[in-house]
Amino acid sequence: MENKRYFLIHPIDYRYGSYEMRKIFDRENWLQKMLEVEAALVKAHAEVGNIPRKAAEHISKMATIEHVKLERVNEIEKEIKHETMAVVKALTEVCGPYGKYIHLGATSSDILDTALALQIKEAINIIEKDLIEIALLLIDLAEKNKETICVGRTHGQHAIPYILGHKFAIWANEIKLHIERLRQCKERVCVGKMSGAVGTQAGFGPNALKVQELAMKYLGIKPAEISSQIVPRDRLAEFICLLALISSSLDKFGREIRNLQRTEIHELEEPFKEEVQVGSSTMPQKRNPISSEKICGLAKILRSLAVAALENVVIEHERDLTNSSCERTMVPEACILLDEQLKTMKKVLKGLRIYPENMKRNLNLTKGLIMAEAVMLTLVKKGIGRQEAHEIIRRCAMKAYKNNIDFFDALKTDKTVQNYLTEEEIKQALNPYNYTGTAKTQIENIIKQVKNYLQTAK
Fold it and tell me: What b/e readout covers 179-217, taking b as 16+ CB neighbours within 10 angstroms?
């Protein structure tokens, strides 16, 4: 007897993804889905009078992994080198004389594509639940920080005053859009079919369209409007591209948290268990943002899978097999790795540490220069043309930079500024708390919109 050792190689096997998500793509769950599709087909045949109802009832009863063992399917496949026929033969073995009605008129892809749709439907339900939780966490953070002032940054440089809650509101709205996209995509992606060898349904007889309609109804999904031997892969490409898009948003959130956790900035910090967590094997003081880094790292894989999904859209004639091996890896990987990102992001947001005192320190880091726009617009209100005011304030800002002095000192000693603004007016224009625009109103609007959407779109 051959002694086989099974290796754990892919991190999905031991590191990434929740039990619930990995279970969807477990070999036994795949087999169960294949059997469910075969059972739906025989029930549809019986409904239109193609086969005896007694046969359909018996086959449906036996079409479970309790009766059809994965080990037996694997044995048959090893011998005949055909996965779907291995399932058909294993099911036939346990159905006795009724076995002759199994897989009637179908081609392998009828069963495979429909089973895949059932798996994706389960995966989408998990992804949607996680996205809703993340949206709720973000609007909570937006609410709690709608008056938390910090510096806004563009090009990695200090720009003008900002509100932390505005950042979270933007993220919450982005997640809301992903939920909308996912729900729309679900309708297009979770479809099955019974179309036969090249899509003509010739093997299903005169009631072929009814057989397809009934089989999908039993399975709880819609039939594809039209297919060749396979469901066209633009649908699957849309799904994988959407997962990559969601992944990229999580990448953006993670990168922002990582950047704001930098020692010199330290405005945000992901959770860290001081009691036990180790940041470095050699530097005991380290508090590395490893969770956010993991999220960002996995996004690279997700984006690469989108390319593979787009390549699979291109199929020769009524089908070839170039998509099959790719999808075996691509679909479980995309779902499981995104699942890991989503679960990790929830943990990060739940334990996110916020440091308003450091935000205040960073607001003053440029000694008032972040208020240059506000001072410029104050001059405009006094009657100076916008372009002229811009040049005056730019000149004062460069003077402050060059001499490392407070922007206030550079402004109050400028003759043109002196002609238009008093020192008190300059001070008012330099107050960052006076220059946050409609940020708070925008935050409150987004909180309301996201809450309403999640409540009404269940």
Answer: bebbeebbeebbbbbbbbbebebebbeebbeebbbbbbe
Distances (CA, A) of 81 to 77, 86, 90: 5, 8, 14
Alpha helix ranges (H) inside 351-403: 356-363, 372-381, 386-403
Measure the CA–CA gap between 27 and 38, rounded to whole angstroms. Answer: 17
Rounded CA separation 390/161 (Å) = 18
Catalytic residue among 108, 280, 281, 304: 280
User: What is the per-residue pLDDT for 314?
Assistant: 96
CA atoms within 13 A on the CB side of 22: 12
Question: What's the CATH architecture for 366-434?
Answer: Orthogonal Bundle (1.10)
Evaluate whether 202 touches 196 at the Cβ level (below 8 Å).
yes
Cβ distance 151 to 159 under 8 Å?
yes
* Residue 249 designated active-site: no
Does the structure show a pLDDT above 60 at 170?
yes
Given a cut of 80, whether residue 458 has pLDDT beyond it is no
Average pLDDT, the chain: 96
Among residues 60, 67, 109, 155, the one annotated as catalytic is 155
pLDDT bucket at 1, cuts 50 / 70 / 90: very low
The pLDDT of residue 337 is 98
Architecture label for domain 14-101: Orthogonal Bundle (1.10)
**Among all chains, which residue has been given the structure tokens 């594809």?**
224
**Catalytic residue status for 317:** no
- Hey, where are the domains in the chain? 14-101, 366-434
Spatial distance between the Cα atoms of 267 and 363, rounded to a whole number of angstroms: 11
State pLDDT tens for residues 184-213: 999 999 999 999 999 999 999 999 999 999
The pLDDT > 70 percentage for the chain reads 99
**What's the number of CA atoms in the CB half-sphere (13 Å) around residue 280?**
8
